[in-house]
Amino acid sequence: MKATPGDWVVVESTHLSEMRRHGQILEVHGPAGDPPYLVRWDDTGTETVFIPGPGAHIMTAEQMREQHSR
């Protein structure tokens, strides 16, 4: 998984009671865009260091804009 600051990480829910989460990547700490990432989560506004798991994927800022404009 590769990212750059400004990209978004999207974490799909794994349970019916959970919602999809997304957060903006502020910093990339791995070499060549690899995790871990410093992420600001939209739902809480908190910033955490995050290592994506199997339910996560990266979207560019442009992809996020396109998705939200639909």
From TrEMBL:
Residues 1-58 form the DUF1918 domain. Pfam families: DUF1918. It comes from the Bacteria. This is DUF1918 domain-containing protein. The lineage of its organism: Bacteria, Bacillati, Actinomycetota, Actinomycetes, Propionibacteriales.
